[in-house]
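Input record, target 12 of the design panel.
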């Protein structure tokens, strides 16, 4: 049976071996993954994953071990293995680990759930994907294929530390992703729409899978009449999703303190320096209500917060775990996250977003004689050390004399992160937070990315 007692036992064993510090995370996770492609279920999986992860500090060096078995003998073996790893590493450690002090906490936190995800039959979840697929397919005969992916996770988490922290968590989150592909002759349009929340199955009353599917189909069909994008420097208006991806990828990763310390961030040594225009205020906020990346405590047991990264153009802070906080002589702010018990916590974002301004979308358009409106994101690449980025938008539109003109396809936004932040000269009030998944250090965690519509001067636009 999974419980806080297993984590406490792991801590006691390690303390008895002589560890300076120990934290043990025990988890039991129930998950469902359903993927429907072209009206065929190619994946229907539901299962339970459980295990223990133990992090040990000995003479300034870390050791880590994990196990999927919670039997007493295996718990002891895992703990002893983590301690041996720390002990073996300690003699060669060139820099001894230090981490900021925190107050021990004892708490129990649960996501508010009306309809537990585990109680819903898998057939009901499969039917949801069928309905969404059908809604997209019937929108237009040019919709050639639809892929719908349903995912949910719930369960229990337990954290115990040698400092006295004891935390119990009961997470619950679900999501749906619709990818619609439209074809007409040689032209192809592909759009992805997705949404999710931390909640029970009742979340699908708010998320509206059918509306999501219709939007994906409508946008995919709209791309069939899109023209190739121009290349050059333009005034660009980025929608909430693309601007949110910029906030996350280009700025958020650069504000993660481990990158700052290792010299892999363009934001290093820039606290209280101007890095953007007066309009730019950016947060990484673990407290955002129902945010995809929100949590009350991080994986080290530190209370999370709304972290101010940039305020009116000036860099004000970084995302910190306890170790980087000590290194930078700052207070920890709850920025340590682990994908699961099988991984060590590392510095990670939660919900990263640009704050809303006071303009309307129409006001952003006004005065743009020749520009480009970019929507959505197909991914891209970022170099946080050099401060460069390149993102492919899902779709675009020319702006002519303050009006939206012909649609564009195969269009990208690229540039220098700090130059782009300085060139933001308009921010609307239509804020939206989108769900995402972020990879780092071999781990994938849930993150939110948000922004209102943003106008950027002299931005680099590229087309095929």
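The sequence produced for target 12 reads:
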């Amino acid at each position: 049976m999974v419980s806080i007692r297993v984590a406490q036992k792991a801590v006691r064993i390690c303390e008895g071996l002589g560890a300076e510090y120990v934290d043990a995370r025990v988890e039991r996770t129930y998950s469902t993954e359903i993927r429907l492609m072209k009206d065929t279920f190619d994946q229907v999986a539901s299962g339970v994953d459980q295990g223990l992860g133990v992090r040990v500090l000995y003479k300034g060096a870390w050791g880590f071990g994990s196990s999927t078995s919670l039997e007493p003998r295996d718990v002891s073996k895992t703990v002893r293995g983590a301690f041996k790893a720390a002990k073996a590493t300690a003699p060669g450690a060139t820099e001894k680990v230090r981490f900021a002090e925190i107050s021990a906490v004892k708490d129990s936190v649960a996501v508010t759930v009306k309809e537990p995800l585990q109680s819903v039959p898998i057939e009901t979840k499969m039917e949801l994907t069928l309905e969404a697929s059908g809604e997209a397919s019937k929108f237009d005969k040019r919709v050639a294929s639809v892929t719908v992916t349903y995912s949910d996770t719930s369960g229990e988490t337990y954290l115990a530390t040698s400092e006295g922290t004891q935390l119990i968590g009961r997470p619950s989150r679900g999501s749906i992703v619709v990818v619609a592909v439209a074809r007409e002759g040689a032209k192809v349009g592909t759009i992805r729409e997705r949404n999710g929340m931390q909640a029970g199955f009742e979340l699908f009353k708010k998320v509206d899978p059918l509306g999501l599917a219709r939007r994906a189909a409508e946008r995919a069909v709209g791309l069939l009449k899109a023209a190739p994008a121009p290349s050059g420097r333009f005034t660009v208006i980025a929608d909430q999703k693309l601007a949110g991806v910029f906030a996350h990828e280009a700025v958020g990763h650069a504000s993660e303190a481990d990158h700052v310390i290792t010299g892999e961030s363009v934001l290093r040594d820039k606290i209280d320096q101007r890095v953007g225009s007066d309009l730019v205020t950016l947060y990484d906020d673990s407290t955002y209500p129902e945010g995809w990346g929100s949590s009350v405590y991080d994986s080290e047991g530190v209370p999370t917060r709304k972290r101010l990264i940039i305020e009116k153009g000036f860099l004000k802070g970084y995302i910190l775990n306890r170790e980087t906080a000590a290194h930078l002589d700052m207070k920890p702010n709850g920025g340590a996250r682990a994908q699961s018990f099988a991984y060590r916590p590392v510095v990670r974002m939660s919900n990263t977003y640009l704050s809303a301004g006071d303009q309307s979308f129409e006001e952003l358009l006004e005065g743009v004689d020749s520009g480009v409106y970019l929507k959505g994101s197909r991914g891209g690449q970022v170099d946080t050390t050099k401060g460069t980025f390149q993102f492919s938008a899902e779709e675009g539109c020319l702006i002519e004399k303050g009006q939206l003109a012909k649609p564009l396809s195969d269009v990208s936004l690229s540039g220098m992160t700090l130059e782009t932040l300085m060139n933001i000269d308009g921010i609307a009030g239509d804020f939206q937070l989108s769900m995402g998944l972020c990879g780092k250090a071999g781990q994938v965690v849930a993150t939110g990315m948000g922004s209102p519509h943003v106008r950027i001067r002299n931005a680099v636009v590229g087309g095929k």
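Residues 265 and 385 are 4 Å apart (CA to CA).
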